[in-house]
Amino acid sequence: MIPVDQLREPEDPDRTLFDEDAADELARSVRDHGIIEPLVVRPLEDGTFEVIAGHRRLLAARCVGLLEAPCVVRAGDAPFAGIRLAENLDREDLSPVDEGRRYKRLFEANGEDVDKVCELVKRGRARVEGRMLLLAGDPRVLDALERGQIGVGVAEELNAFKRSEGRSFHLDFAIRTGATRAQVREWRTRDDAVAAGEQAALAAASAGGSPVTSAAPPAPLVTPYAAMAPSYAFSSSLEPRECVMCKQTEPEWRMFRTFWCASCAQQHLAARDGAPGA
Predict the structure, then answer these.
(1) Domain extents for the chain?
(2) Residues 157/127, Cβ–Cβ less than 8 Å
């Protein structure tokens, strides 16, 4: 048992964001039942102890006014970073972004050896490399992932887009609609085909041939109506559609989807066509 005022928070914590509701729930549990699982700490030269695993439990103990906390003291040469990360991963407390940042720090601190990182954190190579690749991807995708606006699978698919324009548009669409990884993969396949068409057009133009017209969508239409529209009011399809009112053709993604009953639809079409008595 170590006095709480002798326990120091980690100098380099894995977690950058704390869920307030979860923190309150943990504090209530500590107040009612105490700290059931000991913190893992290491001794410091000034006689205090740095918390290696159990950062949230320390904060909860301070919150409810505990005087002492049960601790396991590790020797000074223990692999502290690996211990801390392994515990947080087992508890699933870390966000994917925080997880990736910790892997990257361990990667850099261990001679850029992915296998060593995998050994320290007890995770597979695909998991470790995948999380680190998130950090190397589009910063806007990373920000949306960190904010909880998209999931890991969606972020990975968005980063795989060949065209930055396509990625930007579909990122916004994925945030608004809560798209799944499978849906974003379908969008990426279609957008990559557009990218291939653009490359073919450039190659033909540079060779003196007739360039192929690109099917790439223009910049997304931004209007007050688009800002207020619910997520189901838009599609990501590039298929050309004819406006029911003016007959002008636009890509489907630039058009609103509405629902009319048969009676109202007939009245609108009659008014559009200038039918007598409409």
Answers:
(1) 1-93, 235-278
(2) no
CB 7 within 8 A of CB 51: yes
**Whether the predicted model's global pTM rises above the 0.70 cut:** no
pLDDT tens, position by position, 134-181: 999 999 999 999 888 999 999 999 999 988 888 888 898 888 888 888
Three-state SS across 66-121? Answer: CCEECEEECCCCCCHHHHHHHHHHHHCCCCHHHHHHHHHHHHHHCCCCHHHHHHHH
Closest residue by Cα to residue 11 from 43, 50, 59: 50
Looking up tokens 């918390």, which residue turns up? 51
Q: b/e per residue, 16-30, with b = 16+ CB within 10 A?
A: eeeeeeeeeebbeeb
Q: Are residues 251 and 239 in contact, defined by beta-carbon separation less than 8 angstroms?
A: yes
Nearest-CA neighbor of 140 among 170, 180, 179? 170
pLDDT of residue 223: 37
Q: What angle do the packed helices 125-136 and 152-159 form, to 10 degrees?
A: 60
Distances (CA, A) of 76 to 25, 68, 167, 265: 33, 22, 47, 76
Considering only the top CATH level, what class is 1-93?
A: alpha beta
